[in-house]
Amino acid sequence: MLEIRNLKKSFGDHEVLKGLSLNIPSGKITVIIGGSGTGKSVLLKHIIGLIEPDEGQILLDGESLYEMTSETLKKQRMRFGMLFQDAALFDSMTVYENIAFPLIEHTDWSEAEVTRVVKHKLEQIRLPGIEEKFPSELSGGMRKRVGLARATALEPEIVLYDEPTTGLDPVTSKAIDDLIVQTQNNLKNATSIIISHDIPSTLRIANQVAMLHDGRIVEVGSPKDILHSKNPIVREFLDPVIDQIGVA
Ligand SMILES: Nc1ncnc2c1ncn2[C@@H]1O[C@H](COP(=O)(O)OP(=O)(O)O)[C@@H](O)[C@H]1O
Ligand SMILES: [Mg+2]
């Protein structure tokens, strides 16, 4: 459904993406792994159209994102939801206003309808009743969950998560993982694209794992394929973690 073809992107003379290609199957969870600063967030921003590549294509149902009219692109963008790396909540807005924001922006729903959806979303992320709180009053894990509620408020078909569990304790990380899988199911088998440093979590929830290294995808496969990969770049990335947690 989503096809990334030979994507190239430089910032000044820093070449970040060097011809990156990847197919993202619909209805599945794809996890992208790779070291810090390798361009994972840059890749996600290309997918949602926040950044345009120097070269290459992203095809959505066979149609290039970069050749669409702005009208079509706007419509297509509503099919995407994104949880940013830092949750990116608006600090001056309440939880209610944060989650309601995309609904007010993109729909003509009544206030009662918006209120109902926000309430439902807060129940889904198991934080009912926190409508009037501000982001500064929430823990990191709670902010991520509210970010997740906002990213999925419009029931997107394709949900992107940028390091949803980084910096969270194991129990909260597991709760976020469960929410991602639950969201995937709630949204009638949405397509999920997750960037993660969290190997145990990746192996637990991914259908497909792709490793980004030096501007390209160097390996793609099932969690099992990746776990048993003989690619030295993959091994270098995984082995220290596997030694630590004892995944066999
Ligand atoms: N808007 C930008 N302008 C200049 N450089 C950028 C910009 N966005 C990202 N970069 C650079 O691109 C590289 C990859 O960044 P990023 O995708 O955030 O890495 P990560 O894999 O950790 O998510 C980094 O060196 C970063 O400094
Ligand atoms: Mg990043």
State the main characteristics.
single chain, alpha/beta, six-stranded mixed beta sheet, four-stranded antiparallel beta sheet, 24% strand, binds adenosine-5'-diphosphate, binds magnesium ion
Query: What's the CATH architecture name of the largest domain?
Result: 3-Layer(aba) Sandwich
- Ligand identities: adenosine-5'-diphosphate, magnesium ion
Q: What would the principal axes of the Cα set say about the shape?
A: globular
Q: How far from one another are the termini?
A: 33 Å
Report the average pLDDT across residues. 91
Alpha-beta classification: alpha/beta
CATH topology group of the largest domain: Rossmann fold
Helix fraction, binned, reads 25-40%
Query: Roughly what fraction of the amino acids lie in strands?
Result: 15-25%
Q: How would you write the strand order of the largest sheet?
A: 6-7-8-3-9-10
Please identify the top-level CATH class of the largest domain: Alpha Beta
Instruction: Count up the helices.
Output: 9
Number of strands: 10
Please trace the helix and strand order, writing H or E for each element.
Answer: EEEHEEHEHHHEHEHEEHH
Number of domains: 2
Which spans of ≥5 residues are poorly predicted at pLDDT below 50?
none
CATH superfamily of the largest domain: P-loop containing nucleotide triphosphate hydrolases
How does the major sheet shape up?
6 strands, mixed
Calculate Rg over CA atoms: 18 Å
